[in-house]
Design goal:
Heat Shock Protein 90; two-stranded antiparallel sheet; single chain; 27% strand; HATPase_C_sf; alpha+beta; 6 helices; chaperone
Length: 199
């Protein structure tokens, strides 16, 4: 964390060019964002950034910075991630519009639509569903039904209810077709690509 996050532009242009020349086309796509000061652009919208990271063979640590300095501490919560990295941005007040799902989708579409890594957005969806209605019956009628005097099955009444559910939605669905041979690209992939760049 110290060597990768603690030093701006640690890798340098010469290391980037060296790795670029030694890699194939797919690996070159994965190099994007690993060099230069891209990570630090997050301070344009956040006044505090926390990077929580867990390696299989190590404890979980938190790198935290308020742009002028940084700290690294062992995570007191323990291994909550199991494995991987979580980046938390504490947004500046003037950047709250970046919390809007439509704003985030537009940014991903504009700047990250074709990267090889999936980007998911925690999204709400409202659906109208039919739910059964519990009818209150008088005690006498209930007793009659229980005794078997009312044999015919009543049609259950339902009402329409709006329910909100939350789930992860993949927002960069189109992959870079120019990285593949034209014979490997299906016609529907061309259609999807064309639609994505003309939105």
């Amino acid at each position: 964390m110290v060597s990768n996050l603690g030093t701006i532009a640690r890798s340098g242009t010469s290391e980037f060019l060296s790795k670029l020349l030694d890699s194939n086309a797919e690996q070159q796509q994965d190099l994007i964002g690993q060099f230069g000061v891209g990570f630090y652009s997050a301070f344009l919208v956040a006044d505090n950034i926390a990077v929580t990271s867990k390696h299989n063979d190590d404890d979980q640590y938190i790198w935290e910075s308020k742009s002028n300095s940084f700290t690294i501490v062992k995570d007191p919560r323990g291994p909550t991630l199991k494995r991987g990295t979580q980046v938390t941005l504490h947004l500046k007040e003037e950047a709250y519009d970046f919390l809007e799902p439509d704003t985030l989708k537009n940014l991903v579409h504009r700047y990250s639509q074709f990267i090889n890594f999936d980007i998911y957005l925690w999204q709400s969806k409202t659906e109208t569903v039919e739910e059964p209605v519990e009818e209150e019956q008088p005690a006498e009628k209930k007793a009659e039904e229980e005794d078997g005097k009312v044999e015919e099955e009543k049609e259950k009444k339902t009402k329409k209810v709006e329910k909100t559910t939350w789930d992860w939605e993949k927002v960069n669905t189109v992959k870079p077709i120019w990285m593949r041979k034209s014979g490997e690209v299906e016609p529907d992939e061309y259609d999807e690509f064309y639609k994505s760049i003309t939105k």
